[in-house]
Amino acid sequence: MYRLSKEELKNIIKLDPYHKDRQSPTDAEVRLFLREVDYHCPLCGKELQYRDQIKPEQKLFEIAHIYPNSPTVEQYVNFKGLRRLGKNCESYENKIALCKECHPTQDFHTTAQEYIQLVEIKEKCLLESELNAATRDLYLEDQIELILTKLSCVQDEELSELSFEPKYLKNKFYINEVSIKRKIKNYVVEYYPFIRDILKEMDGKNGFHQNILAEQIRSCFIKINDKTQDKEIIFQHLVQWIKNKTLCSSNIACEIIVSFFVQNCEVFYEISE
Ligand SMILES: [Zn+2]
After folding, report:
1. Structure confidence at residue 13 (pLDDT)
2. In order along the chain (273 residues), what is the average pLDDT of each group of 10 residues?
């Protein structure tokens, strides 16, 4: 079998516009690299930054290339034809924070499978920042905070007096989307009438209109749905969006609200047969 020589590879790389000289990431980029992996190594889960770390040489992470800056012959051959992230190998999209133990092993990884695994991890990170950019400036009525406050102090008996049978949920999920469907369904059964009544009571007062709020949730859903159809990611991002806009500290309260709007038909499309 013909084997590419190192010299030949050098010439190929020279002609390949994806290859560029090494560039160190800026401090701002390093902060973003750490944030996008939530300060944990995406390959082994180890923490990448902790409070006691004072000196730069104590740092626990390194910024790694996903597609290598200087591939070995074996890497070049194995990764041929596989998708590459970013305009060139020095792009932000082709780099990721890894712990100091995983980085060296990753640098020598040679199978297409290991490479693709890292590409997929990075694609998830990139999607998350795209979602943030797409929804950051959308407006959300301040009065939603009132619902969140009421949810935080609702009594058991207030909820148990109401019973609700979710009707439209089953048309919105595929059979493999069981966990997210059940999670939403449980919230809807417990809380839908409670929130519906609060909204009814607030409607038309102090400039609040529940239709406007519903439209805002709908707009946010549509923006997210442009980028991904993964319902779990959509749900989580809507929860995060409401949390950020309201500075609400309860994840559960925000999940209840998003579930309300799934039942109310602002979130998720009906699946056509
Ligand atoms: Zn690691």
Report:
1. 87
2. 82 90 94 95 93 77 94 91 96 96 83 93 95 93 92 85 75 92 93 94 93 96 96 96 92 96 92 77
| Alpha carbon of 61 to ligand 1 centroid (Å) | 8
How many whole angstroms from 9 Cα to the centroid of ligand 1?
A: 30
Please, which residues have CB less than 5 A from ligand 1, an ion?
41, 43-44, 46, 99, 102
Cα(104) to centroid(ligand 1), Å: 10
Rounded to the nearest whole angstrom, what is the distance from the C-alpha of residue 28 to the centroid of ligand 1?
A: 22
Q: Where are the domains of the chain?
A: 6-135, 144-263
Rounded Cα–Cα distance for residues 208 and 144 (Å)? 10
Ligand 1 geometric centre to CA of 115 (Å): 15
The CA 48 to ligand 1 mean position distance, Å, reads: 9
Q: Which residues sit opposite 40 in a β-bridge? A: 47
- Rounded to the nearest angstrom, the distance between the alpha carbon of 235 and the centre of ligand 1 is 28
In this predicted structure, what is the pLDDT of residue 162?
67
User: Which pLDDT belongs to residue 220?
Assistant: 97
Ligand 1 centroid to residue 39 C-alpha, Å? 11
Question: How high is the pLDDT of residue 107?
Answer: 77
